[in-house]
Write a structure and sequence with these properties.
The chain has eight helices and eight strands, in the order βαβαβαβαββαβαβαα. The structure holds D-xylitol-5-phosphate and zinc ion. Its EC number is 5.1.3.1.
Length: 218
């Protein structure tokens, strides 16, 4: 399988949302990365259901939803109804993570778990075979445009070993500060999917930037 690029809509121009969604549709990108923040789990509020509904209406690619909210169980069915294909919850926000993962799958979505930069890979040992995706945060969640944390490479290798050792099929996604400077090393370490917000949308030609990232990764 080829490696995947997931532009983060958080960095799009919300005044021209349909234009930016169409740009992703017509690019070499694989997924739409959708960041939902509640101002409680993270110190920022992004956008919510009505905006996702508008995105889903035009998006023709996989919708990868990253929930940065407390008690995400409350909204699993809502996100399924809004067209999410992958639903990722934070390890740090789930008291009964196993139950949450089963509920996401029962609602017909792929299930992911995100880890904050300080959370070790080892906490996933007993759930890794239940997961479709692990999202490693390479910045502290809450804002786009932050600098990549170098310790991420080590975590990607550790996770890759855990996945191979446990014969899990789960994908490794990296989120935060991804650019053409770190993309190759992340893929070498074992990443399968790279989220990129500012690097794509703040560039002069986002379509070309996506194509460039895609070629670096494959
Ligand atoms: C941060 C979000 C990221 C963010 C990435 O909390 O989870 O998805 O949009 O943005 P960049 O690529 O600008 O770091
Ligand atoms: Zn994200």
């Amino acid at each position: 399988m080829s490696n995947l690029i997931a532009p983060s809509i958080l960095a799009a121009d919300f005044g021209n949302l349909q234009r930016d969604v169409e740009m992703v549709n017509n690019s070499e990108a694989d997924w739409f990365h959708i960041d939902i923040m509640d101002g409680v789990f993270v110190p920022n509020i992004s956008y919510g259901m009505p905006v996702l509904k508008a995105i889903s209406k035009h998006a023709t690619k996989t919708i990868d939803v990253h929930l940065m909210i407390v008690d995400p169980d409350r909204y699993i069915q809502t996100f399924a109804d809004l067209g999410a294909d992958i639903l990722t919850v934070h390890y740090e926000a789930c008291t009964h993570l196993h139950r949450t993962i089963q509920a996401i799958k029962a609602a017909g979505m792929k299930a992911g778990v995100a880890l904050n930069p300080h959370t070790p890979i080892a906490v996933l040992e007993d759930i890794i075979t239940d997961l479709d995706l692990v999202l490693i945060m390479s910045v502290n969640p809450g804002f786009g445009g932050q600098s990549f944390i170098e310790n991420t490479y080590k975590k990607v290798s550790q996770l890759k070993h855990l996945i191979e050792f446990s014969k899990s099929n789960c994908l490794i996604e990296i989120d935060g500060g991804v650019t053409d400077k770190n993309a190759n090393q992340l893929i070498e370490a074992g990443a399968n999917a790279l989220v990129a917000g500012s690097f794509v949308f703040k560039s002069e030609n986002p379509t070309e930037t996506i194509a460039n990232l895609k070629s670096i990764c494959n």
